[in-house]
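Sanity check

After download, print the first record. It should look like this:
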Amino acid sequence: MSESTPSTDASAPRLALPAAEGPIFVLTEELMVQGCEAARRSPRRRIIFPIHRRPEARVQRMLNFMQPDTYVAPHRHPLDHAIETVQVLRGELGFLLFDESGTVVSSHRLSVKDSVALLDIEPNLWHGMVILAPDTVVLEIKRGPYDASTDKEFAPWAPGEGDPGAAAAAAGWRAVFD
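Expected structure tokens:
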């Protein structure tokens, strides 16, 4: 199952809302409210809304609705074409780049309150993010199609999602932006 496809298992945490339909997508305030509410209800404290209409789309576009207590495990996208663009549409996040041992080498605050709300990174960079404001909404664009087996590699030096220590790791990274 990809992050851009809703789970059909009723017991599994819902990872995504149903994808956009039709030839035109318009982001509305109603969808922003619905997505933020879905993120608040999600055990992961985030949820994706795929804008791309088909899972096999060559350009994957999605909205990530995120709450401050979600944990986005540090990862990298190992494929040569795996460029990632992130733009904050609402709220605020801290974007972190790490070296091979897990040391933070660069941090970027992306906020609609500031002039910087977009970041684009090349493949093979260890990165993660912490959410700094409730109801943060992020537009993410990546080359597709999504393949869970090749999309990302999680950092061996960081706890995985749901692991003991994940909350403490996220709190430490949030402190970079205090």
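If your output differs, re-run the checksum step. Summary of this record's structure: Confidence is low (pLDDT under 50) at residues 1-11.
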